[in-house]
Specification:
By secondary structure, this protein is an all-beta fold. β10 and β11 form a beta hairpin. The strands form seven sheets. It has a six-stranded mixed β-sheet, with no helix packed on it. Strands 9, 10, 11, 12, 13 and 14 form a six-stranded antiparallel β-sheet that branches. Strands 18-23-20-26 form a four-stranded antiparallel β-sheet, with no helix packed on it. The protein is elongated, with a radius of gyration of 39 Å. It is built from no helices and 27 strands.
């Protein structure tokens, strides 16, 4: 054994001219500082609050995730670092006596070991947890020992094998056979994500594609209504000159639909939705159209969950049909209201009105008027701004 004091990266070293080194100890360790009073056999984890330090490992999400670091060495075969106050030899590789418990059942040779609820003490690992190594000795009920030999092999335990932590490369499949619990941790820097058969997706630009959204509150800078041959939630039509009523046929019209109409001409009076049923609705004018009146319409389905409070002496009954309106019954004779959306717009100014689908509407069509019927045609995409 001699000292090599030569220069260069290979100098300033102790060397031997023998065939190799031999020692009666097993592990390779490095000195680490710790604020805990560590003892041989303790499992440690990275101390995220102190730079370059370790602490006793526990069963927190960090210990069972990515921060398990090693085991306090009993007698290392090779030791690096300085023997400063507060520093401890942490085994990084090899066989190490390790404190364990029966918290998760008997430990058999080959079982992976992870942190238990007792700081510094290990237990048999659960699938999906991060293991510190593999048991080389059994530990069962009645065992008088406080530690067993563990072969250091940090990695994820999938229920079958312990895999060393690696960085997945493009094209690598992460084979998951059960639910993945992130334990309140964030999933960050994701390029995109999608469901089975691409039934939903979020792309790298943040565009969400789903079939439906249920939420108590939605806020958006703009909204686009897409229509196609199957679903037409928006459309257009015309009340022809000489007529005072037009029927719009559209399969999307339901009893619970709210109908928003915009006229592109002067109706010279009031107008209203005079009838609404499955698949169609009527627009009526108080005066016969003096010219063809173009209009656009937009449909919105409404699920009305309001509770109706009846007047004194009357009783509310509830119809469970979707879109229905609770009714009020009593011994008195009910009257019928007609909701009319008046307009005083000048010629060429668009006027918009909504109707209340809970009202029963009665209208009298002037005797000189006829009725137009408009059927929603197969449509291309129509972008309609929010009224």
């Amino acid at each position: 054994i001699y000292y090599d004091g030569s220069g260069g990266p290979g100098g300033d070293m102790m060397r031997t001219n023998a065939a190799g080194w031999a020692t009666g100890s097993y592990d390779f360790a490095e000195m680490f500082p710790s604020g805990d009073a560590l003892a041989p056999g303790d499992i440690v984890m990275v101390d995220a609050s102190t730079e370059g330090a370790v602490r006793l490992a526990d069963a927190s999400s960090d210990a069972n995730g990515r921060l398990l670091a090693g085991i306090v060495s009993t007698r290392p075969g090779f030791l690096a670092g300085f023997n400063d106050a507060g520093n401890f030899p942490i085994a990084m590789s090899g066989r190490v006596p390790t404190k364990v418990s029966l918290e998760n059942g008997d430990i058999h040779v080959g079982d992976p070991i992870s942190a238990s609820s007792v700081p510094g003490v290990g237990m048999k690992a659960n699938p999906g947890s991060y293991a510190i190594g593999i048991a080389l000795e059994p530990y069962v009920a009645g065992n008088a020992k406080t530690a067993i030999t563990v072969f250091l092999k940090p990695g994820w335990y999938d229920g079958t094998t312990v895999s060393a932590p690696t960085t997945l490369v493009a094209g690598t499949n992460l084979n998951v056979t059960g639910p993945v619990d992130f334990n309140a941790q964030a999933l960050i820097n994701v390029g995109g994500i999608s469901g089975i058969n691409n039934s939903w997706s979020i792309d790298s630009s943040g565009n969400l594609t789903v079939k439906s959204v249920t939420a108590p509150d939605i806020e958006a800078a703009k909204m686009t209504v897409k229509i196609d041959d199957g679903t037409q939630m928006a459309g257009n039509g015309v009340v022809s000159v000489g007529n005072s009523t037009v029927t719009v046929k559209n399969p999307a019209v339901k009893p619970n639909s709210r109908i928003f109409v915009t006229f592109y001409g002067n109706t010279e009076g009031s107008w209203w939705i005079s009838r609404k049923t499955d698949g169609e609705f009527d627009i009526s004018l108080s005066k016969v159209a003096a010219t063809d009146l173009q209009f656009d319409y937009w449909l919105m389905d409404v699920l009305d969950n309001r509770t109706v409070i009846p007047p004194l002496g009357q009783t509310a009954t509830t119809d469970t049909t979707v879109g229905s309106t609770p009714s009020v019954t009593s011994g008195v004779t009910a009257t019928t209201d007609t909701i009319v959306a008046p307009t005083t717009a000048a010629s060429g100014t668009a006027t918009t009105a909504t109707t209340d689908s809970t009202a029963t509407t009665t209208t009298t069509t002037p005797t000189a008027a006829t009725t137009d019927t408009i059927t929603a045609p197969p449509a291309t995409t129509d972008t309609t701004p929010v009224p």
